[in-house]
Structures are given as structure tokens and as C-alpha cells.
Amino acid sequence: MSIPRPSLELPAIEQSQNVQAAKKLEAQFNALDIQLVKKVQELSEHRTEDDEDINDEDGMNKDPAIVAMDVAAQIGYLRKLKFQYLEQNAKDKYVKSIVSDIDDAPIVTVEQNNELSSINEEKKAKLKIAKEKLGETQKNIRLLAPLVEQDYQQVKQATDRAALLSQKIIDARTRLMLLRQTHPRPRLTIPLADQKLADQVDEMQTLSDQVQAVKQKRKYEKACVKSGALEVENLRIEAAEAQKSVKSAQLDEEDSRLVPLYDWFSASLALQRSISNLEDSHSETENELRLTYRLESSPPRRITITLIFEADTKKLAAAEITGLDELGLEVEDLVDAHVQVNDVHGLVAAILADARAAAGT
């Protein structure tokens, strides 16, 4: 498939305009009276030293690059000739104006001098006005430069602050986007937050009331346990006295006084066990007593207190408690305090009181 070439024919109006322009240019060229055009033959015959060794055939068969270099060299040479021509022409005119007669020399009249003087005065006046304007402008620049500097600093500070605020806005938007991704809908609104806060305040008040009630109940239970412990201690003393009286009396098994005494002792022992919820008590060794108590909680819990006594003095040496880990109680300080004063009954009563308070019984 052949590609159509663009038409090289110009419209008739444009051709006529180009012809007229060419004729006008030819007329102007003929009117200039250029000496170089008239000396074409002399210019053609002129050769440089480099061109003398080149014949006509070699000159016709030059490479385009060599021809371009020759053209550039010729253009430089023509420019030199033009400069020399202008220089010689100026010298010739200057010499002729000096050595020629006065009649032939160009005459400068007074009117021309006056005209040139008036032109110079006008130019001087304009120059003076321009200098005054320049001075006034420089003065205004000196006055306005500090104000411009101050305004520039203010604008710079405002720009820096705007850039900082823009960065903060971008950071806030980024954090907000992360929060939205972390906490999808439905999100907590301000009314819901206020309602939740009010509910939490009510719940905290209710829990505070419950804590106060538990504290009152704990005080009451402590008082009850303390009184029960005193009663148990009195019962133990009475039981010991009864045992001593039984041993001293040396009664026979068929003695009628032994049965009521045994019943009384059994009832006292059952009362003690019911008060303290003692399920089991036995001696592991000669100086170690293990007591197991039952807490009436939901679910029921058991606490084992192991009392270790010194072999020679029978004083309380140490105590081990198991079953308090589930209640979250730490009684090391309490045990150490009662061990130092050799208070076995106080230790057992304090541990049971704390355990019952923690279990809510």
C-alpha cells in the first residue's frame, strides 16, 4: 500500500506574494551597490595557501563534511574581509574630512549644534529624574526591607505552623483510621458512654454497700468465733479438771457417777466440734498435731492446720496451713506473730476467722 505524498504545489495567491517579495528583495539588492557582487570573478580566483595544492577535480569531489569545514573557513575569512573593509572605509572618510578642503568637508551648522545641545539637555534632565527616582526607590527599599523581613518571618512561622498542623492532622487521621479498624461497628457513642458511666457508678455504689455489709458480717463473725473460742477453752479446762478428778477418784467401771460424767464430756466435745467444725484431729508424731476443719461454703472447703511443738518445752515451734490457696489468703505474718507468743488457740481462731470471712460463710 503506497502512502500518498503531500502536494508541493502552493496556492496561486501565495505564489504571487512570494514572487512580489522576491522582486522587491532583488530591487533592494541592486540598489545597495555592493562591491563584492561586482568582483565575483576576483573572489572566485582568490585562493588560500591550502587551496593551491588542490586541483579542480579534487575540489569537485570533496566529502560533505570537508565541504562544510571549507564553508565555515570561508565564512570566517569573509567576516575578516568585511571588518577590514569597514575599518578602511572609516579611515578613508576620516582622512578625507581632515585633509580635504573646507568646501568639500561636511559642514556642521549652529542649528545642528543647538539641536544636539537641546537633545543632550533633555537626556540630562531625564537622567536626573531617573536618578532621583532610583534614589527614592533605594530609600524606600531601605525603609521597607525590615518590614518585608518581619512579614517574611511571620509568613515563614505561619507556614511552619501550618505544616506542623497539617502533619498533626495526618497523624490524627491515621490514628483514627487505626482505631476504626481495631474497633469496628457498633462503636460506643457519647450517650452510650454516659449511660455506661452511670451504670458503673450505680454498680460501684452497690458493691461498696456489699463490702460494708460483708465487713459488718465479718466483725460479727469474729466476735462469735472469739466467744466460741473462749467457751471452747473453758470447756477444755473443765474437761481437764474432770479427767484429773476421774483419775484421782480411781472409780470402777461400774461406778454410777462415771456415766453422767462421760455423757457430759461427750456432749462438751460434740459442742466444741460443732462450734469450730472440727472434722478430724490426730497426732502424726509426738510433737505434731494435725487439725482438719470444714468451712460451710459453696462448695464446702477443708482447711488443715498442722501444729508443730518443741520436743522438750512443748512450745509452739511452727505451723503449716493447707487449703487457703484457693481463697487467696496469705497468713505467714499471722502465723509468725502467734508462734512468737506461743498462742495456739489464738492462731487457730484467727486462721478460721479469716478463712470463713474469705469464703463468705
From TrEMBL:
Coiled-coil-forming residues are: 113-140, 197-252
What does UniProt give as GO cellular component? kinetochore
In what residue span(s) does the Kinetochore protein Sos7 coiled-coil domain sit?
77-152
- Report any Pfam family annotated for this entry: Sos7
In the UniProt record, does the keyword Coiled coil occur?
Answer: yes
| BP-aspect Gene Ontology terms | attachment of mitotic spindle microtubules to kinetochore; protein localization to kinetochore
What keywords is this UniProt entry annotated with? Coiled coil
What is the protein name stated in its UniProt record?
A: Kinetochore protein Sos7 coiled-coil domain-containing protein
